[in-house]
UniProtKB/TrEMBL annotation, chains A, B, C, D:
A matching Pfam family: FmdA_AmdA
NCBIfam families, per database record: FormamaseFmdA
Coiled coil (UniProt feature): none
Organism this protein belongs to: Aaosphaeria arxii CBS 175.79
Molecular function, one GO term: hydrolase activity, acting on carbon-nitrogen (but not peptide) bonds, in linear amides
Domain of life: Eukaryota
InterPro entries: FmdA_AmdA, FormamaseFmdA
Name of this chain's protein: Formamidase FmdS
């Protein structure tokens, strides 16, 4: 015995465009992983390297959203077949050693947008430096916290039937919401299709039929952006095609519940260590329609009394009453935290960035008391290096500035 | 010094109809509480005693919803004035000693309804026996847990201006949603008005203008149904009128995030110990629009790895795609848990009751990945006396039955 | 069904001397409890009411140590026989409603003593007021915390063989340690024997052979003073005699690991709710020599980062090196905390009292690195209403005084 | 900006004997670290590579204890002077990437020994494989847990005065305990002195006066073996010489309270990331005699109800009563856990190894109830892949074997 390192199933380069890297969206697959094998998989950040470690948000403003979500994989998992479940144990997630930083962005309302873009339409950015388990940002001083590091996206490929269900139901949404002044969903898009080394006809088919990876979807998970899917978690994923075709990417050093600014986690390039186990016939045994997971044991703990909880209701900022709308309530909830924290000298954009990536707890409290939903957001006070408790008189400090775009 | 008990600011009787008890909805107020005083306040259950400890849900089916939410109070808090904040420290909550049981109900779709009433329209009920910090139910065997005991409702009275805002915006909702086959909000209602000893003209005014207590509301809190507002929590409440006019009621032995069956917590009569402190000019100092709170330190802890987390997406049970609708996602999320637990022999109604009252954790995960919201529900496995982990092959057991209504 | 209170197996009076109360040390027993029954049992404080709610420690100085540990019971548990295990589920512990206060004492070195009596020989006292789950003391300002409420003593009666083993081995200790200027153990003592209504010959026998309840003992538990044996805990107790003869007492509102000042917990009169279950043949099945327990789920949580941990080593205050002596290390450990906290204005006696009763965590760290044991004490910072973290420059405040004896 | 890795202050080789590596015990120092700098420091395992990844404990039996504790350093920390405090923030600890395994050993009673060597005198060993945050061992099947990774040793160099105090007091212990059939402390030892590139006269002086690193010591910390000193912890270390002369080593993937088998942690070679900050005049400001620390926020959490707690008393295995001896109580406590776990098929040596390295919680419960100390050990049940709760009837399984020495 003696030395024995864990195998890398894929390595990425930080010096090459994502579109040129063979292990990203490899078609038909980027190699095979054994049942019960543990491997390391490297991932680029979700923008494929479009965002730089600097003090301008021009790159965020100009991000090309047809060139994102370059996932590593897919991988064939031996013995996996439709109806099985792929158990994914996340044994570790780490930033790439030679890129110990990440970013949080607010997209322009005109290019990507976010949860509060009606109120905060401008692009903005914060760079986060990693210090072991901690991170801090020169763009949001006074804050430092341990990351709840996790992948934003993981899942197995859809079958043709599942894919066609997706395309159909999202097309319907688009067609019935054309009156809205918003992009409500993104259909397949031939522009900048990345399909690895696939031949042209496959590439074309991908462009015409391939589902966009922006949303998570009930049938397979995908971009769920679950902040607690951290080290030690075990995810149960439905298998829809032979070999499972597992992909992973969009690694986050940390995220708040909701990931509200859309590019809201602390996005990073990194490496994830996974053990893959096939549970034969698992979908029927578990009666599973959507993935489930069991969190790992090593989440940062603050103690319940070290949170301030804010309440949000489904009455919007114009005073309009909505009917049991948890989305409206959660948006109001975010605004309540912004109002609270701006008293200390932070700009609204800094707080918007912070709520996106710090480990805030977003809960459904009451969802049946017509007409109001009540949601709550728990803000951990120990991520601040000064006392933000409500009994303390706030002092407006010079909190510098997050990065903005040039005008 | 020596013996010195805490003063009871109000006591209720279990032998008298709620409508006849002087301390409930006393107008103009049921006595005065000093700034910094600690008092005990007794409360009836939120149905005012309409539900019995038996094995039939007839009482749930026939509940008179004009006779509920009999709150204890209001109390005048000395020195409190509009613009202040009333700090409410919940020092303890206990069931009444001579009624050591509570109930969870599913209202009939035709009389109250609930979060899943399109799918589960029938009335049902579970009785819970209290065993110190624990509770268990003969109607849902195999389950036992420590209560996260709390008040469903607390708040200060609205000013006339606030009240008129409420009535106006909820009336608008009702008028614009008349096409829906649902009650979307409840306007003031003269039927069974309970206004204590108020003279007839006041009673009439209350019937015509008084807001219903069903919804929590952003301006004062109210029926927020926040499961973590338990022993040791500190709530910061806006004061809108002189004396604050604080009321409290709807005590819960336990509740799950969402309180999904509407009569969903473990409803009980009980006593709450509160310390009241006035924070002069607090609303401006805190920039407060809605209440905030700091949880107590004694919540039951299971450890992160002792939850199964389920995922929910905003695609409804008919396969229809909704646009970033967290309410739809949370409903699907509940259905995923029901599908999982029914494999052990529980009926769907038993699980619906259980999800309403057990300490499930309902989170917003991703709320920006168009068009899907992803919510998660964490189900604590240690509330079951058998192993429900996904690696265990489920065995269908005889789980008895919850209480149903006679037909 | 309907109303149904839990049965009281014993009630105490606060107006009668402990020695006159029938339910304390009743011989042969104070009634029978069914297998699987839940009962409430009231207990006097461990001094039997000798200590008053006042500002003098004269009562502590003059305490009569032959008149303490009046336990409630024993109770016969139906079906319990030698070799069984009695499972004791502590469903709740509460102070008596009409005595919402407790005390912590430092005994005089000449009458009881304590862990640090060589350094702090004087009697002292702090009175604690209960505020729901919290407590605070006028004698130690700036401190407030949630109690980890528990019984200091519970256990089943020894058999004659076990009793004789105890008396023999403790007599040996006494005889071999007569050179020490200390009481090292207390033999049976006829003075002030309390044996309920037992006839004189039995009383005499008790006085001559009955074990003192001061120490916990491996064969049955007894006065273990385990701070985490709180609400919801389940204890597995060996049964040595028919009927088990279970006794309980010495209730604590809170205690620190070690209970260092001897009368160190927050001692109180109270009521404990217990479910008793007999596990037939349990001692053999569990291979049990000493009790085990499983803590309840509702302990106060501070989060790991909200403790300051101090280190103690087995080099005593005179610079003498001891060989792997954890007791010496823990004593030094306590002194380190006293030195730290006195910088804020507290007297050493105040801190000694505080370390005895606040939820400090006392750990064995390394016990094999010859010649030093390293112990650690975790001091929760959130029990203070000012910031005691080491990066904060301490300010000496007026911290008043604990109660001392008149001279 | 852009890429910017953290500087390595020292790198070790796995292919060279520890005694030949320049960064270990470098005299006078191995370079300088700036105030507020973050660096990575690599360390060999504490035996300097004497133990192999194999199935024999011959290497453990034959370990050369004059060739251990090769610490990395010392490092000069800029601006640090006697009387200052060196704040050491442990930002991360990781195993070396190309050696993803560690070991736990039981030393022979004749060569090193351990806490239970009177009862278990034979050498034994378990190899642990690292799987991200988890570890498991082919020598102790059925067990897997997340590591609470930490350094066993860190500290600053003693001044000549401090050193002379150590030598004097430990020599006294040795001289007064010569009647014992045990090594009670280890004096300076010229054999195999490792003093880096120091000239011969210095080497000789080190051999004659240099303190052995086996014990932690109150004046500077050292080999404290505190299991919770994990990722994110902050240690406050007294500075006794100019430049502080900080050393670190003896990294542990995990350890139980007490590290009872002496070579009891999961010993590993690894890398630690530290931020160094000098607190000028800190010793006086903090009144510090021994180090203090604040734990990091990312400890594994099991929930309080997921432990079985065992009790230990100061009556030894021969039935002899000791006077308030916490060391005796803790030894008995360990034996109680061994008796419990052997019912499942584990050998006593397997359990002894497991208690040494798994995250067991060792507490002082009561330390004043003469003549017995009561300690408790909490055993987390979730590290087992089968149910060890006391209500479950144990089944003796084939648990294989740990590694033993050839005879």
């Amino acid at each position: 015995m003696g030395k024995q390192e864990i195998r890398y199933a894929a390595k990425v380069s930080l010096d090459k465009p994502a579109a040129e890297q063979e292990c990203l969206h490899a078609i038909p697959s980027y190699g095979t992983i054994k049942n019960n094998e543990v491997v390391k998989i490297e991932c680029v950040d979700w923008t494929g390297g479009q965002i730089g470690n600097n003090d301008s948000a021009d790159d965020v403003r100009d991000v090309d959203l047809t060139k994102i979500h370059y996932l590593t994989g897919p991988f064939d998992i031996e013995t996996a077949e439709p109806g099985d479940i792929l158990i994914v144990e996340i044994q570790d997630v780490q930033p790439l050693q030679d890129q110990p930083w990440g970013f949080t962005g607010i997209f322009s309302k005109d290019n990507g947008g976010g949860f509060l873009d009606e109120i905060y339409p401008k692009p903005a950015k914060a760079i986060w430096d990693f210090e072991g388990v901690f991170c801090s940002s020169r763009h949001i001083p006074g804050v430092r916290f341990a990351g709840l590091i996790h992948p934003g996206i993981l899942g197995c490929a859809p079958s043709p039937e599942v894919l066609s269900t997706w395309n159909k139901r999202e097309a319907e949404l688009i067609s019935t919401h054309s009156h809205l002044d918003r992009v409500v969903a993104q259909p397949p898009n031939p522009q900048n299709v990345h399909a690895g080394l696939a031949p042209e006809d496959i590439k074309k088919k991908v462009g015409e039929e391939g589902a966009r990876t922006i949303p998570g979807r009930p049938e397979h998970g995908g971009n769920c952006d679950i902040k607690n899917l951290s080290r030690g978690s075990k995810v149960y994923l439905p298998v829809h095609v032979k070999g499972a075709k597992f992909s992973v990417g969009d690694l986050h050093f940390s995220q708040g519940d909701g990931e509200i600014s859309f590019c809201g986690a602390i996005e990073m390039a990194g490496v994830i260590t996974i053990k893959f186990t096939v549970m034969k016939g698992g979908m029927e045994q578990l009666g599973m329609k959507s993935p489930i997971y069991i969190p790992g044991p090593v989440q940062p703990q603050f103690g319940p009394g070290r949170y301030i909880y804010f309440e949000g209701f489904s009455v919007d900022e114009n005073g309009k009453q909505h009917y049991l709308d948890a989305t409206v309530a959660y948006r109001q909830n975010c605004l309540r935290v912004i109002e609270y924290l701006r008293r200390f000298g932070y700009s609204d954009y800094q707080i918007y960035l912070l709520l996106s990536c710090a480990p805030i707890e977003g809960h459904i409290a009451g969802i049946v008391d017509i007409p109001n939903v009540c949601t709550t957001i728990g803000l951990p006070v120990d991520i601040f290096d000064f006392d933000i408790m409500p009994h303390v008189k706030p002092e407006k400090k010079d909190m510098g500035s997050c990065a903005y775009a040039s005008s």
